[in-house]
């Protein structure tokens, strides 16, 4: 245990002293996220899209709808209830107000008029602001017509929508890409360097087990993976208010599994590479296509069918998809079991193959 701790501390110090490694591990992904988030992440909207369904059709409800249309901050969309609620579910609207049938009749007999506000669960802060404004306007008009400013009974319901901003999409993708690059260019390159310098041969004849030597490096990689993830999430939240709806344990599990899988792939590259130059070329040949074809920067829906098929053959796609669904979508691990099985299967296969092809010199 003492030797493992010593190796762990030594590996940490080696990484922290390498300024280039610090830049590519921490500063580069943060800069990339800030650039993409600033250019594409802002919705650019100066208004809130509000859906209104008037099931009553009375003078009071018509005045309420008319007043909402005069508010510059609101873009009012009228229609049938099912149609408007579908738009909310699709992310086209922020909030929906449904004025129930019999609204005015209830006010006339001294009973509260019934209304329902449906809010976007994925952007609850904006929806609450809109709901508060809607409630205030309806109270004012109720007071004008029946001299009872609080004669409206409003129920609120949260609706889970598919409205993801680009920054919500890109942050999990950048995290997955960063961890892939760290796994592919980190420990495996060190193994190749040690082989070229004869260090692996010395370890072979020393009392130190190879498993302990590599285990300390793997543990360091996992620690830095979690630090990178936390840093990117903090920057994403502070800069763009990204939606983090998932369970933090589930997020950490996906991060660790994905990192381990790409560490295994990197170790396989190190096992079959005869030199550092060969390892770098092979690693670039593997990572570069995944960076641009695995749906890290743009959703697959906008890609041609052929590229979608290619993307789903790349492990980074499943890492990014699982991380995105768990982190932003709030999905459970069971919901992304296919992604987890693919990552675990790839990692296991690469690890077994690397053992078979591993060379000490």
Keywords:
five-stranded mixed beta sheet; alpha/beta; 2 domains; 361 residues; 66% helix
Molecular structure report:
By secondary structure, this protein is α/β, with parallel strands linked by helices. The chain folds into 2 domains: 2-41 and 165-357, no CATH class; 48-159, abc type-2 transporter like domain (abc type-2 transporter like fold). Helix content is 66%, strand content 9%. It has 15 helices and 5 strands. The radius of gyration is 27 Å and the shape is elongated. It starts with a helix and ends with a helix.
Which secondary structure elements does this structure contain, and how are they paired or packed?
Elements: H1 2-17, H2 19-41, E1 48-54, H3 59-69, E2 74-78, H4 81-89, E3 95-99, H5 103-108, E4 113-120, H6 124-146, E5 152-159, H7 166-185, H8 187-196, H9 199-205, H10 210-240, H11 248-272, H12 276-293, H13 305-311, H14 315-327, H15 337-357
Parallel strand pairs: 1-2, 1-3, 4-5
Antiparallel strand pairs: 3-4
Helix pairs in contact: 1-10, 2-7, 2-10, 3-6, 7-10, 7-11, 7-12, 7-14, 8-11, 10-11, 11-14, 11-15, 14-15
- Can you list the strand order of the major beta sheet? 2-1-3-4-5
Radius of gyration: 27 Å
What separation lies between the terminal Cα atoms? 27 Å
**Main sheet attributes: strand count, strand direction, barrel closure:** 5 strands, mixed
What is the 3D form? elongated
Number of domains: 2
**Helix segment count?**
15
Output the helix-strand order: HHEHEHEHEHEHHHHHHHHH
Mean pLDDT: 77
Number of strands: 5
**Regions with pLDDT < 50 over 5+ consecutive residues?**
42-46
Helix content estimate: 55-70%
- Strand portion: 5-15%
Structural class designation: alpha/beta
């Amino acid at each position: 245990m003492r030797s493992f701790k010593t190796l762990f501390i030594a590996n940490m110090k080696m990484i922290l002293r390498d300024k280039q490694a610090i830049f590519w591990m921490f500063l580069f992904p943060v800069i990339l996220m800030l650039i993409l988030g600033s250019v594409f992440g802002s919705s650019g909207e100066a208004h809130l899209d509000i859906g209104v369904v008037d099931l009553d059709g009375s003078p009071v409800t018509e005045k309420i709808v008319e007043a909402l249309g005069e508010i510059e901050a609101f873009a009012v969309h009228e229609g049938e209830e099912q149609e408007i609620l579908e738009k909310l579910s699709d992310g086209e609207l922020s909030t929906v107000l449904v004025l129930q049938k019999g609204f005015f009749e209830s006010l006339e007999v001294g009973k509260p008029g019934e209304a329902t506000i449906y809010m976007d669960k994925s952007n609850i802060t904006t929806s609450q602001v809109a709901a508060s404004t809607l409630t205030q306007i309806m109270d004012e008009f109720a007071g004008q017509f029946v001299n009872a400013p609080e004669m409206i009974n409003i129920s609120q319901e949260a609706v889970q929508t598919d409205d993801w901003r680009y920054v919500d999409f890109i942050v999990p993708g950048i995290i997955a890409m960063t961890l892939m690059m760290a796994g592919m260019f980190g420990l495996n390159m060190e193994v190749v360097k040690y082989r070229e310098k004869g260090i692996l041969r010395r370890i072979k004849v020393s009392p130190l087990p190879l498993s302990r030597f590599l285990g300390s490096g793997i543990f360091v990689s996992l620690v830095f993976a979690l630090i990178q993830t936390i840093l990117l999430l903090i920057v994403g939240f502070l800069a763009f208010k990204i939606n983090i709806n998932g369970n933090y344990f589930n997020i950490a599990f996906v991060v660790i599994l994905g990192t381990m899988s790409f560490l295994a792939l990197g170790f396989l590259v190190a096992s079959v590479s005869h030199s550092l130059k060969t390892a770098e070329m092979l690693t670039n040949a593997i990572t570069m296509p995944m960076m641009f074809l695995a749906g890290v920067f743009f959703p697959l829906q906008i890609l041609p069918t052929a590229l979608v098929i290619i993307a789903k053959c790349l492990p980074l796609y499943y890492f990014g998809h699982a991380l995105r669904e768990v982190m932003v979508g709030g999905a459970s691990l069971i919901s992304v079991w296919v992604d987890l099985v693919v990552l675990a299967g790839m990692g296991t296969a690469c690890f077994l193959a690397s053992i078979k092809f591993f060379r000490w010199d």
